[in-house]
Amino acid sequence: MTDIVTFGETMLRLSPPRGERLERTRTLDVHPGGAESNVAVTASRLGADAVWLSKLPDSPLGRRVVSELRSHGVRTGVAWADPEATRMGTYYVEHGGAPRGTNVVYDRSDAAVTTATPSELPGGAVRNADLFYTSGITPALSPTLAETTASLLETATAADTTTAFDLNYRSKLWTPEEAGETYRSLLPDVDVLVGAERDIATCLGREGDPADVARDLAEEYGFETVVVTLSSEGSLAYHDGELHEQGVYESETFDAIGTGDAFVGGFLAKRLDGGEVPESLAYGAAAASLKRTVDGDLAVVTAAEVDAVVEEDAGGISR
Amino acid sequence: MTDIVTFGETMLRLSPPRGERLERTRTLDVHPGGAESNVAVTASRLGADAVWLSKLPDSPLGRRVVSELRSHGVRTGVAWADPEATRMGTYYVEHGGAPRGTNVVYDRSDAAVTTATPSELPGGAVRNADLFYTSGITPALSPTLAETTASLLETATAADTTTAFDLNYRSKLWTPEEAGETYRSLLPDVDVLVGAERDIATCLGREGDPADVARDLAEEYGFETVVVTLSSEGSLAYHDGELHEQGVYESETFDAIGTGDAFVGGFLAKRLDGGEVPESLAYGAAAASLKRTVDGDLAVVTAAEVDAVVEEDAGGISR
Amino acid sequence: MTDIVTFGETMLRLSPPRGERLERTRTLDVHPGGAESNVAVTASRLGADAVWLSKLPDSPLGRRVVSELRSHGVRTGVAWADPEATRMGTYYVEHGGAPRGTNVVYDRSDAAVTTATPSELPGGAVRNADLFYTSGITPALSPTLAETTASLLETATAADTTTAFDLNYRSKLWTPEEAGETYRSLLPDVDVLVGAERDIATCLGREGDPADVARDLAEEYGFETVVVTLSSEGSLAYHDGELHEQGVYESETFDAIGTGDAFVGGFLAKRLDGGEVPESLAYGAAAASLKRTVDGDLAVVTAAEVDAVVEEDAGGISR
Amino acid sequence: MTDIVTFGETMLRLSPPRGERLERTRTLDVHPGGAESNVAVTASRLGADAVWLSKLPDSPLGRRVVSELRSHGVRTGVAWADPEATRMGTYYVEHGGAPRGTNVVYDRSDAAVTTATPSELPGGAVRNADLFYTSGITPALSPTLAETTASLLETATAADTTTAFDLNYRSKLWTPEEAGETYRSLLPDVDVLVGAERDIATCLGREGDPADVARDLAEEYGFETVVVTLSSEGSLAYHDGELHEQGVYESETFDAIGTGDAFVGGFLAKRLDGGEVPESLAYGAAAASLKRTVDGDLAVVTAAEVDAVVEEDAGGISR
Amino acid sequence: MTDIVTFGETMLRLSPPRGERLERTRTLDVHPGGAESNVAVTASRLGADAVWLSKLPDSPLGRRVVSELRSHGVRTGVAWADPEATRMGTYYVEHGGAPRGTNVVYDRSDAAVTTATPSELPGGAVRNADLFYTSGITPALSPTLAETTASLLETATAADTTTAFDLNYRSKLWTPEEAGETYRSLLPDVDVLVGAERDIATCLGREGDPADVARDLAEEYGFETVVVTLSSEGSLAYHDGELHEQGVYESETFDAIGTGDAFVGGFLAKRLDGGEVPESLAYGAAAASLKRTVDGDLAVVTAAEVDAVVEEDAGGISR
Amino acid sequence: MTDIVTFGETMLRLSPPRGERLERTRTLDVHPGGAESNVAVTASRLGADAVWLSKLPDSPLGRRVVSELRSHGVRTGVAWADPEATRMGTYYVEHGGAPRGTNVVYDRSDAAVTTATPSELPGGAVRNADLFYTSGITPALSPTLAETTASLLETATAADTTTAFDLNYRSKLWTPEEAGETYRSLLPDVDVLVGAERDIATCLGREGDPADVARDLAEEYGFETVVVTLSSEGSLAYHDGELHEQGVYESETFDAIGTGDAFVGGFLAKRLDGGEVPESLAYGAAAASLKRTVDGDLAVVTAAEVDAVVEEDAGGISR
After folding, report:
1. C-beta atoms of B293 and F23 within 8 A
2. Does the keyword Kinase apply (chains A, B, C, D, E, F) (predicted)?
């Protein structure tokens, strides 16, 4: 029995050394990253039995991703594609301090995953899992993937597998209107909704006090849980008629990419382990704060470390 | 007045450290490379006024290429494409000793250059040059590029700009039949043909003694010069009714990629500088042998170094 | 059902950059390595379902090993030890060209694995496997491990799991007499014996024509197969009354450590996949030749690459 | 027609990795740097057609500089010197946090540039430019260079090329008295004066409210523009009877060296592009803030990035 | 005549690059470190004639330590041990920002030094020195070392060599009770006691106002000087009936390990050079603040730099 | 009592990574190197008590040299020069395979050492040593050094310190005539002459059979020993009326620079340790062959390694 199955794209992230610019760098660091595999890695490292589903080119680049995920204990269910006919998605990241900021150049078009159909993927894995997770990036990548995402959510729902979905709106992939329409079509099959306050406003048109937004969404769609992330303000969850708030744990940021996925992975891992919503929020927040101290997209942390942050900083609620 | 104008794709080459495999590398070295810019760089470094024409995404990755070519003195005439709508071509190279060999994974589909049309490129640069060079890779990349290649060769011919063309057959891009058909349509506008013995046989169907092949091609198409490269056997040229042979200069190979382009660049640079065919062949062979000692696709060599190889090794003809 | 289970120590190998000496290096490369995990990795990469059993300190160093093995698809059955009470075995390797050679400094005393008892290890994994493999290094590490090795071989034999054993004599761990005595006590439970010609002579006292030695050993102990490795001369196998010889495939050596384990892993993987002994020897020899081109102890190769070496170099038999 | 021509020394800057000291480092990073080429690079990257004039040894070290400047689009007019008879100027930089600070060791004596005479340099480039820039470092390097600097300023003035001069006092090269005397002899040929408040006080003896100092200098010497830089307080300009103030844009500093030159290059580039003085000051301040996020002396930034800083931080004036 | 002799263990510290974790690092930086050699290096660099005594395996790893210490001018008196029978102590350090912190994994058990006896060490060096220094780590490493430490302190006392001792309590090596008992047995032979406020409380049971604690200890044991370090609060010393306080000098911390030893080394070096206690405290505090800007355990600083910190920041006392 | 004192210049050698060219490298490796310190390091590492005399700028660069030499056990007698008034000698090395070869760019003019006078150096060290060594590079660096070299040789001779001198002709420093004249003036104070066959021919005009040349020189100047090095042919010595020949030990060359100095250092160390001339030649040849496997100018080898080469390869004489 699997605890958590995730489905989505994982790319190779290529980044120059600190202080160097993409325009003139001679070396690039390689880190696999993708919202759904980031969540699977966090969950696996924190004790869950995690599986990641996707489609990759049958090439050293595709194997690079599987190799990395496996190293964190994640099992992989990959449809291997013809490497001559498809590509490996990549993205370039340039870390820069203010006022330059972090710059991202995506090169993910026509990645193998954009052609993934339900029949290529192990549907049984979804049916036999406690929880299925994907994010709003996946259906944005291609019409095929939009259908596959819907199909997998339906499969999960039909099998009584809990479903979790993070809006993860990406403005470079589609418009708020397109995203909102797709989200609304998928949400009926979602049990646990995670969304950034901004994404909820932009794509679903819900603005105002985030607690009200969470409750309204929960009631409208019948979500088991709604988690709203508030950036540096932390997060809140509406669950079973109750509202729970969680602040962020302070950290020295080495690499901020993947922080949100570490939060989701930590939250879900604790929920799957029987944790209540408040402690799961704290666990997610702690995983997120630790992630920021580590290079790459992945939360290379241990359960003991996450526990320590939660315990030592029990008063870490910032609002 | 420009000495040499070249047109073609330049990619970012990404390669792991020696002894490391793509599947598990954590760093990649970055080297821009492409047949036509390799030729332009060699020619520029050896004294020619060289211009490279192409189309690139208007992104740090596109600027990476221009930055590198400019550093070798090459001027660039680039049509800048929308970075959201096109890509930067890349390829991955894994250097391995025998029996593993060097492994290449191309990721060049839909590169910005595949949409380049004559009207986007500075045709005046072609008309005002002594020589225009492109290779058989360029028309293979897209139907648009096949038309653009033909158009630029016509422009050059109409302006009495000498044209040089290297067959450079790439089996991952098209079939021998497709290549042969395109080659035959372009060759009437070519003055100097360069071709590997194997490519001539595979695509043009000419086999047998390479000297005979060279003469027959020259006579059939009216080429000013035909250069046939023979791998470790060196090269030969048929020019003005005469045959000239050239061996290879021995070298310790650090990186073999780009050797052929260094040969062509050296040969053309010497010809543009007034050299006779035999000494130009020697010059090209020397540039090629030096290239092999340097990391990356580019022949980072000086005219003095090339001269020294030719002089010290005057007897380097291996056949 | 598992194809192959291996048991033994894996250490962290620490090595300075090429040309640098341990005495003054400021950086060390880290590569996990150990005969039995090397074999498991090779087998896993070549298609076998492989499990590695051992005991490690519950520390980042222990997790470093598991992380690496998992990345190659190997599943791990690890008894986690108190990191305050035990150590991670390490060894330092300095690569040097002739006449300096490769220098190894072991720092493996009191490693966690030396305390591993059968009850800590998943005996079921051994019983449910097609093949169980360990080497003569394991019983040399401690009296406890000598008993555990014997116990696991007995468990396998009782469960009709085929057993394979590589003598792997290490003079820094014990004397030839000690090794020979232990070997002789274990061999009755061994089905497939692998041994270097030199180790067989040194520890078992069998010298002379290696074909005779193999046959005599097979007959005396009733081995299903005896494989004798002959260093640069290749290898030979005595199986089912027949003798088979295999040469080495030439390679440019980047890192020779782990070559023997790659050979064993390739041989066993092919045998488990239904290969006959001759083709399995060839497969092992090809895996070994490819291993030499890669940094570290592990054979980071693919089945396609091994196949290619065997096919392209069918005449690679050197004797 | 060239927009801007600069003249001065460029050195190779050699620096150990962060946290390491010169006394024990085993690697040095190489970055070409010099006030006048820094200004040319900034201006070129921000859209100006820029030329840098200097004298270098005809060696790989001299070519290292030209290669780097060309990569940023700067054209170079270099007098090549006998590498046996002259040197490449170098300097060593050790970055250290407080209380250690950044430590610089100059090794620039007898650099090739110290022998540069007007007849070796392309005077036509100066005459055909819109603006000629040099700094007070150049005449400090040798008596010959003092004369050459004066001559080039005269050439520019005679040709109605606007001249810009940054005092750039270096106490390791000469005394305040020597510098002041030379400055005063050159200023009659200067149109745009740039000076740090401290340098103006030390070498020209003008202290007090910087606005008054600027106006007084402008009136005394008839400068078109006087820009006074005030370190963390920003800058001010007196131009056409009006005073303009500009604050600094906050940045996370990765490497502060070259900040002042980025400011001057940005200011001049915007002026050459038709910008008024206030917006040119903002542009310079934005270029300077971005420079601080990048390793090396050069402002590897784009016009779009500079625009973004100016627009997003319109209220960034700190006084 | 030697100024200072120290005795203790030096280990090889192995640490991954910043942002990387031990669990997945592929490279480790190597820095020798140990309290007593850290003190010797600081003292030597600041002008003292320093000797370090210890026992090391006769291997490249042992020579690595001697090589590094010698490079800082420290002379070494090493008993060389059989590298097959003993080990080199190592420890792994992972630098992480909050909330992760710095993580240390010790691997020092059975190091060669734990077997060091007085007869193996050059007692004459102790007798001929002005000062002998060791710390509470040394007797904690083995019963043999506890005896050797006592013996060397007695030797020093008998020879009128001043003795200095830093409590340096390490909870991973022994309990507070064990430490306290050993400390109390050694203190009668100590002239200068250094102790962290926390160690004094934990092991010697002295709590309360640190000034009172220092005076009480001095009077009870007849110490010439008692220095109490107060972490970010600085330090204080009781000497000759007077109390002296010293704050910390602010610094940007690159690597905090070794800060305390740099303080002790600076303090002792200045005392040996004739400095009064207050200026010696300032000198130590300055050395400590500079140490924090440098990678590794050692204070790679110069006397001029320490002087500059003291002079420029004379008001750096924080309480 | 010192075994060997050497005097000469040590430079910082700066070299790009393999496969990279000086013209475009972004990092340089730093290795101190100089004939006389190379000899001192080899001798020290092989057991001699060695001292190196020189003059260096009192800067981190000067300390870089002392730090490195001390790490190999060499004591240093350095006259520290004003770092503002003098320089650190440097040289750039580019390793390239054939046909490019190794390229050296010297930047050593006006180094601090060129001003060294006898009164600045510890003459007592020379008088109290068994052997004084310098090479023909030293007097070539400046007229002052020529005088100082002569003076130190006289000092040694007067004190009955054996003197050894290696011609080490450098064509970039002086002409054969200048060198020959200086050599002839110094040789009367030399006891052990070392010279490459080519240098002896070029500067001293002695050609022909090297055995004859050695004997003739020994008889003419009354040398105790004459060693002639013959490049890949090995070396020979004429001593006490007898001729001894020594071949080279084969090695894989990682870095050939410093091979000759390793030979001299090994030869002198063995002679100082009481070795006869033939075994000292073998010892030198072995040290030289090991040196070639190590990066940098220094022979980072141990006596045990040198012994092993001599013993295992007793038949290594190539002529």
Report:
1. no
2. yes
Are F230 and F236 in contact by the 8 Å Cβ rule? The answer is yes
For residue F45, give the nearest of F309, F305, F303 by alpha carbon.
F303
Task: pLDDT band for D268, please (50, 70, 90 cuts).
Answer: very high
Average pLDDT over residues C218-235: 97
R_g (Cα) of chain E, nearest Å: 18
* H or E element, residue A163: strand A162-166
Residues of chain C contacting A72 with CB distance shorter than 8 Å: 67, 70
Q: Which helix (H) or strand (E) holds E48?
A: none
- Segments in F119-254 forming alpha helices (H): 123-127, 137-140, 143-158, 176-186, 197-204, 210-221
* Cα–Cα distance, F165 to F116 (Å, whole number): 19
What is the C-alpha R_g of chain B? 18
Contact B313 F20 (CB under 8 A): no
C65-87 pLDDT tens trace = 999 999 999 999 999 999 999 99
- Determine the average pLDDT of the residues in D12-16: 98
Residue F293: which residues within 8 A CB-CB, separation 6 or more?
C19, C96, C97, C98, C99, C100, F251, F252, F253, F254
Query: Rounded mean pLDDT of chain E?
Result: 96
Helix H or strand E segment including F269: helix F259-272
ipTM rounded to 2 decimals: 0.94
Instruction: State the average pLDDT over residues D58-72.
Output: 98
Phi, psi dihedrals of residue A142, rounded to the nearest 5°: -170, 160
pLDDT value of residue B313: 65
* Token pair 């500075």: residue: B122
* Residues 6+ away with beta carbon under 8 Å from B284: B235, B246, B262, B263, B264, B265, B266, B267, B268, B270
Q: What is the mean predicted confidence (pLDDT) over C74-101?
A: 95
- Of A130, A148, A238, A256, the C-alpha closest to A194 is A238
Name which of C20, C22, C24, C94 to mutate to probe chain F: the one with the most chain F Cβ atoms within 10 A of its Cβ: C24
Those chains having 3 or more beta-carbon pairs within 8 angstroms of chain B are A, C, D, F
Catalytic residue among D261, D273, D297, D307: D261
Q: Please, what sign has the CA dihedral across residues C46, C51, C52, C56?
A: positive
Task: Provide the 3-class DSSP secondary structure of residue E177.
Answer: helix
d(CA F313, CA F234): 14
Instruction: Tell me how crowded residue F146 is: count the other CB atoms within 10 A of its CB.
Output: 18
Contact call for A290 and E23, based on CB within 8 A: no
Q: CA of E1, closest CA in chain C: separation in Å?
A: 30
Residue B230: closest CA among B197, B200, B192, B266: B197
> What are C246's two structure tokens?
């295999």
Q: Over chain C, what is the mean pLDDT?
A: 96
**Mean pLDDT on A135-164:** 98
Q: Which one-letter amino acid corresponds to residue E264?
A: V
* Rg of chain F (C-alpha set): 18
Residue of B nearest to F100 (CA): B290
Chain E neighbors of F72, CB-CB under 8 A: 67, 70
* Residue range A52-74: mean pLDDT, rounded: 98
Please indicate, yes or no, whether the overall pTM of this predicted structure exceeds 0.90. Answer: yes
Nearest CA in chain D to B68: D71
In angstroms and rounded to an integer, the radius of gyration of the C-alpha atoms of chain C is 18
Q: In this complex, which of F19, F21, F99 lies closest to B251 when CB atoms are compared?
A: F99
User: In B171-276, which ranges are E strands?
Assistant: 192-196, 225-229, 235-239, 242-246
Scanning chain C, the segments in alpha helix (DSSP H) are 35-45, 60-71, 123-127, 137-140, 143-158, 176-186, 197-204, 210-221, 259-272, 277-291, 303-312
Amino acid letter for position E262:
A
A72 vs C73: CB contact, 8 Å cut-off?
no
A315, pLDDT greater than 50: no
